[in-house]
Amino acid sequence: MFSYPLHHVAVAVSSLEETSSLLELLTGESPSAVEEIPDQGVRVLFVGSVELLEPLNSETTVGRFLMKRGPGLHHIAYRVPDLKEALARAKSEGFQLIDEEPRKGSRGHLVAFLHPRSTGGFLVELVQAG
Amino acid sequence: MFSYPLHHVAVAVSSLEETSSLLELLTGESPSAVEEIPDQGVRVLFVGSVELLEPLNSETTVGRFLMKRGPGLHHIAYRVPDLKEALARAKSEGFQLIDEEPRKGSRGHLVAFLHPRSTGGFLVELVQAG
């Protein structure tokens, strides 16, 4: 048996500073430091369990998401104990992997994404804490 | 000082049964029983911290969301100790309330929604555990 808890929810925004101020005001949680992840084309920060994603430019995945749909909920992330094992299991169950191998996420985590087509319509990230 | 933790993330789906099976397979979490909330025009269930929303018909808020955008992430919910107080605070800080008064949500909770326009682009629910 296994059980993956929710790790965070990510939101695409056009300004980390603006949205993090709003969330701090709303929830009382202080924003984390900003981290840039060139590999994923984003600047990110966390306010509690909510990750804000600001695209580095309009040609990135999050940049295109923003252009097409405006700011909004982008993906949910589950915490897994072993990402390689979790990817192998997900693949064997028929989930479509966007990342066949773990890659580096924010805060030293290892991450990988599953395609919305296979999850019921929403982007899912698996996270192994760094 | 106050601090509202994330309570759940909600996803609009066309079939509770299909998506909950997928999430159970992916995360190892068992789905809760289905609950119907006529007031919000949905059937809901939880798989871990993820709430699935299936519209009762296409004229409901979630029904229109599905028609327009297809299945996907719908809102995030923060847990608050006192919903009336939280709504008064949010309003005084400039957040736009969809519900001026708490109403009944799933599992006996009291809930109220804030307009995406005021939160940075995504629908936020405040939940007082029942």
Which features characterize this protein?
4 helices; 8 strands; 130 residues; eight-stranded mixed sheet; homodimer; alpha+beta; globular
Architecture blueprint of SSEs:
2 copies of one chain form a homodimer.
Chain A: E1 6-12, H1 16-27, E2 35-37, E3 42-47, E4 50-55, H2 61-69, E5 72-79, H3 83-92, E6 103-104, E7 110-114, H4 116-119, E8 124-128
Parallel strand pairs in A: 1-4, 5-8
Antiparallel strand pairs in A: 1-5, 2-3, 3-4, 6-7, 7-8
What is the CA-atom radius of gyration of chain A, in angstroms?
A: 15 Å
Oligomerization: homodimer
- Low-pLDDT parts of chain A are none
> Helicity level of chain A, as a percent range?
25-40%
Number of helices of chain A: 4
User: What's the total number of strands of chain A?
Assistant: 8
Shape of chain A: globular
How would you spell out the order of helices and strands of chain A? EHEEEHEHEEHE
Classify the beta-strand content of chain A into a percent band: 25-35%
What is the rounded distance between the termini of chain A? 23 Å
| Strand order across the largest sheet of chain A | 2-3-4-1-5-8-7-6
Secondary structure class of chain A reads alpha+beta
Overall pLDDT metric of chain A: 96
- Tell me the greatest interface: A-B, 40 and 40 residues
Describe the sheet with the most strands of chain A. Answer: 8 strands, mixed
